[in-house]
Design goal:
Elements: H1 16-27, H2 32-41, H3 46-54
Helix pairs in contact: 1-2
Length: 55
Amino acid sequence: MIQSAPQIGFDRYIQLDWVDMAIKVRAGLATLGDLEALLDSAGLGKEAKSKARQS
């Protein structure tokens, strides 16, 4: 019996600049404040920003 590898899916679009900023925060090249400012400029609501940070 052949087992397939588990698949990972995304149910939301993630903007490339958000991913870039998240990587910079993780690498210590940017702060969480920088990420907050980017998400604020995108016009996200409180819940959406919270979900974006958890992704």
